[in-house]
Amino acid sequence: MRVIVVEDSVLVREGLRALLVAAGHEVLAALERPGAVPALVRTAAPDVLVVDIRLPPSHTDEGLRLAEQVRAIDPRVALVVLSQHVVVEYALRLLGEPAGGRAYLLKDRLVQPQQLLEAVQRAVEGGTVVDPALVEELVRARSRSGALAVLSRREREVLALMAQGLSDRGIAERLRVSLNTVGTHVQHVFAKLAIPAGADQNRRVHAVLAHLGRT
């Protein structure tokens, strides 16, 4: 696949480039600043943008704004946004639409190259990938507020894995239970939290995140 990388740290940027090239991907550009990216998207038709959420000049949300701009130029471009820390507001902003092809990952995942490569692949395939640390933060916040008190411990585990984008089969494999058991837990979660049940995986992730992100 064809990738654009935008990261202001030269070590991280070159590490990403080397990792992606070693995996057989074509890195169209590895840039420090976002300014040249929109024109490159128009001319080079990348498959995915991998971007740090904090970029020059203000090191706030430039990467997220760039991702939104790229998606407006070409909705087919997958977005993989990297963050040093869990920022719930930014993550929900990226993942707040039902459309897929998006991933929000902590930079800690860069020491686990396979996880990053799998996230890129899933995003390019139209999936939604959510860093487990974000899901844990959201679940903890909702648990403290009592909003998840209606769920059993196992149902909370299933909810967290749903929010990470896992299918019922993926959840079954992770928890080492049957597919039918997972299906039952999922339906209980939908019913207890009034989350609309839908077949589309991205919409399911969106619904779960929307619920967890409520204050």
Which helices and strands occur, and which strands form pairs?
Elements: E1 2-6, H1 10-22, E2 26-31, H2 37-44, E3 48-52, H3 62-73, E4 78-83, H4 88-95, E5 102-106, H5 113-124, E6 128-130, H6 132-144, H7 153-163, H8 168-175, H9 179-193, H10 201-213
Q: State the shape.
A: elongated
- How many helical stretches? 10
The first-level CATH class name of the largest domain: Alpha Beta
Low confidence ranges: none
Task: Provide the spatial order of strands within the biggest beta sheet.
Answer: 2-1-3-4-5-6
Give helix and strand order, one letter per element, not per position. EHEHEHEHEHEHHHHH
Number of domains: 2
Find the count of extended strands (DSSP E, 2+ residues): 6
Cα-to-Cα separation, first versus last residue: 39 Å
The oligomeric status of these chains comes to: single chain
CATH superfamily of the largest domain: Response regulator
Proportion of strand residues? 5-15%
The CATH topology of the largest domain comes to Rossmann fold
